[in-house]
């Protein structure tokens, strides 16, 4: 089966279905056409799923069918069901498909941070080159700025502030990825900040406090940043190498996947923000706080690699509207 030729042949009817599903008012003939196109496109998607290795084409058609089905049925329950499907299918599948990209970003980010931490902790020259003061006790000491950063503000206000800031960093990494270098710069600056902080705390003999305050929220927060960076760079690479599709069509398809990741990460960063606002500064023993962060991180990875993998490979479910 020539997937490109098949998509080219049926693209006009898919575009027509998209227009009808977005149109505010439909005549009787248009409503009948909408149902007919919905059934036909559902059958075409089922055929593509058995022949096509192109997950983005399948995801795009699935999203179109969800929107068209909600219009056909016209119920609030369908809208809620679509939101549910976003978090049980579309978002985890999109993150799973981008896994090689964000895993690479994670490896590079952590390598840079670790290298900088070792350099800063053991070298006065490193501090001079980075413009760091010789005495950093006000930052690294017990009760210093590193620790009080997490408890200087009311928990709810701090959680909201963290969520907003992290969402901004993730959005920049995502949507500047199309030109690659700005996204790489944002990721590098975050790796630099993390590495310098770790190096200073290690030099002061307080690496245990560093991990005790960072890991509860940082595992999930950094993973979200890695996912954002990986999805953004994948979008940028599509501009360089669109594959078998035209550059415009490949970018549009990958752009939809990137937007899906962006929307889902808002919820992920909300969770990490709540942990940073309420768990990190809670005063609970470090193993308890780190354990909560580890559970959140393992839950997200299981969500992606179990639910996401299943959703990425899932065939179209039988739909009563198709058989009518």
How would you briefly describe this protein structure?
The chain has 324 residues and is mainly alpha-helical. It has 14 helices and no strands.
Q: Ranges with pLDDT <50 over ≥5 residues?
A: 316-324
Q: What would the average pLDDT be, to the nearest integer?
A: 85
Q: Helix count?
A: 14
Q: How many extended strands?
A: 0
Instruction: State which percent range the strand residues make up.
Output: under 5%
* Biggest sheet layout: none
Element-by-element helix/strand order: HHHHHHHHHHHHHH
Backbone CA Rg: 24 Å
Helicity range: over 70%
Inertia-based shape: elongated
Secondary-structure class: mainly alpha
Distance between the termini: 28 Å
Give a structural overview.
This protein has 324 residues and is mainly α. It is 82% helix and 0% strand. It has 14 helices and no strands. It has helices at residues 3-22, 28-51, 55-73, 76-97, 99-122, 124-129, 137-140, 145-148, 155-175, 181-203, 207-240, 247-279, 286-313, 320-323. The longest helix has 34 residues, at 207-240. The radius of gyration is 24 Å and the shape is elongated. Residues 316-324 have low confidence and may be disordered.
List keywords for this structure.
324 residues, mainly alpha, 14 helices, 82% helix, elongated, disordered C terminus
What is the strand and helix layout of this fold?
Layout: H1 3-22, H2 28-51, H3 55-73, H4 76-97, H5 99-122, H6 124-129, H7 137-140, H8 145-148, H9 155-175, H10 181-203, H11 207-240, H12 247-279, H13 286-313, H14 320-323
Helix pairs in contact: 1-2, 1-3, 2-3, 3-4, 3-12, 4-12, 4-13, 5-10, 5-11, 9-10, 9-11, 9-12, 10-11, 11-12, 11-13, 12-13
